[in-house]
UniProtKB/TrEMBL annotation, chains A, B:
Residues 35-147 form the Alcohol dehydrogenase-like N-terminal domain. The keyword Heme does not apply. This is Uncharacterized protein. One of its GO terms (molecular function) is metal ion binding.
Amino acid sequence: MTSSVPPSTQSAVRWFPPSYDIRVETVPIPQIQDPDDAIVKVKLAALCGSDLHIYRGHGGVDAVHTCGHEFIGEVVALGSNFGAKVERRPFLYSSLKVGDKVVSPFTSNCGECHVCRMGYTARCPKGKLFGSPALEGGQAQFLRVPMAGGTLFNLSDPSTWSSNLSQEIKQQALSELSDSSLLLLADILPTGVFAATQAINHPKVQPVVTGRPWPLCFSDSPAGNEVMLTQEDRILTVAIVGLGPVGVCATVSMLDLVATKGIPYRIVAIDPVESRREKVKAVYDSIGDDGKGRGEFVVLGIDAAKEQVKAWTKGTGCNAVLEVVGNSSALTLAFELVRAFGVITSVGVHGEPQIPFTGREFYNKNVSLDFGRCPARAMFPPAFDLLVKRQDVFGGVGQANSLIDRIVGFNEAAESYRAFDKGEIGKVIFDPWK
Amino acid sequence: MTSSVPPSTQSAVRWFPPSYDIRVETVPIPQIQDPDDAIVKVKLAALCGSDLHIYRGHGGVDAVHTCGHEFIGEVVALGSNFGAKVERRPFLYSSLKVGDKVVSPFTSNCGECHVCRMGYTARCPKGKLFGSPALEGGQAQFLRVPMAGGTLFNLSDPSTWSSNLSQEIKQQALSELSDSSLLLLADILPTGVFAATQAINHPKVQPVVTGRPWPLCFSDSPAGNEVMLTQEDRILTVAIVGLGPVGVCATVSMLDLVATKGIPYRIVAIDPVESRREKVKAVYDSIGDDGKGRGEFVVLGIDAAKEQVKAWTKGTGCNAVLEVVGNSSALTLAFELVRAFGVITSVGVHGEPQIPFTGREFYNKNVSLDFGRCPARAMFPPAFDLLVKRQDVFGGVGQANSLIDRIVGFNEAAESYRAFDKGEIGKVIFDPWK
């Protein structure tokens, strides 16, 4: 065997049933199986809180597989459908090249069905979750990306996505942003932006955003003799329940949205764990003056947060609550904090317990609820814009305000899963080549 | 006693505990108790499906009271706060006069608190439900309206509300519309408009409305190389579950919204009861050509509706489902019909059963849900506009396409409650002077 023969095996982080069993194994390097496939050489792959569902044996999964649904890398092979321009196929089928740097959402998606065209890529009927028995994950040196023209996001060609930023600014940002910060695009940053975007665009929040009462807020007809909103009425009160990495991203996104739209705000970020609260405080401190004068932002434990919302709103409650945990107690807290005619946006991954409310409770509070998984592929453009704006927050590793705690090799994979599961460490990134 | 002495007693339809006991009694005519009060002489008062909750003894109510929360009438007395213009008080405190014709929402509301200014009048902290032990109802010859400047809607002065219609058209419509059709403003018409308005303004429906994928639909930034929606993608598919009077109003409102906004549509109106389906078919037939060429509209039973939605959407499901029933089986049907990233708007009055879904089910379908009571006072302007546009539908009594079945005197009150409860008759209006 000489060095000119390409390697046929690689290292990968593998999960073994029934639970808590992570092993680094030597496995074959994947090959193109379908003309729409890409093979990606992984530069970095992250460990995500939702990986712990399977790790703990709660995922209903019983097959050995390569872990991980957050990865960034470089295209090393493309199927035969790349290179040809075919009308109404995703642009990457005609533009993606070997050597391009790419990030992927946590699920594959075709990009060319009705659901994908709507932007609801996380529910593409052909989509699969990376790092599951259905699709090998990114905690490996190489992986296969199916439907890659629909799935991947080309970080070497910023002309491939729309943005409020100019091509020049995007290009410069791409040259400056670290791989570890770009990796946040894979899941947690778009999920945070998704939560905040749903809330601020909800009909029930529009009186605050537009300054016109419901339902005048939906029309441009001149107001009559209605009593108009006061300045005080137009303060958007938001609670964010759960300050894991996605909760931090949701917080930063919500702060950015209110600053960009010029909306006065009161935002409370809530977590019972002090270390998480300290992280969010450090993140907030590292944000510049952007809109800060227009609002109040506090980070509190559960009981203190309830008191704060009562004091702010005289008992009315929050206009919107972002629920970023995914269990019944988080939903119950969200319901307690939200006002009548308020909105709960839930991006937490919920399990089997029945929704802990009666129909009467929902009716009596006129509550709105948005559930579910972020369509990460569709959310990349605004998430990228936020990444560029908030490099102060998303750029670092291992600092007080960093979302990423450490970057380690696969030799530390099993221990990292164990410690992350126990809450002993924050978000970990694997460098498969370290 | 001579005829020059004003009467001090009146007839009223009263409910007696524990259930199914309706009596017409002679009771005192109410007097001004508070400077914000109005006394209204009732011209017509309607029987509403939600009256049946108390009628059947399901309302948790045990005190004798005058029934009814839908009424139209004439102001005969005003408290001392009327006539003076006070800044930021509702306009009617300075403009309402004895002799004005008024309609009321089914709950009182102050019109001057934060919740009311937002337009969420149905949840005014000071509000009370007419026809409950907290507030005597409208099925009487006279009633007292508290916080009347905030609560009432002045049908004698169309300058008091904003509208897309000109003052001239509003004035002419007010002179032409029958009292029985204006009475629909009290509850069922605004509730139907509310259901449709919430759905069509929901973020998850915006790709269909704007033609731009999520989340581009929220920005005006130029699209990049995204795959854009096709004509087929832009067809709004809606189901309306429950075709009682509110369901009919929701159907007419949804048809009007898609016609006005120029949105291609497929709408299925669903009820297991054939007579209700026949009513909706007659209503649809009486609507002119307005936008009909742009969509499909069908009225079906439950199983046929499921098949229809599958056939229309190749199994994807509806963008929005309006749930106008208020029980678990209606919610379950709505959930079955709605697509991933779809919206369920529920205006049905739900009871004590727990919401019949797990968190996992909500997460996996990315479902959005809007619950609760219509802020009828705030919805009067668009509901009035729809009333004017659709006099063909809302104008009649006792015809195949009429929402109102009959107008009777109080002597038929007890029998009307009984027959309405049994589903033997449609919507009944009482004329207290007949």
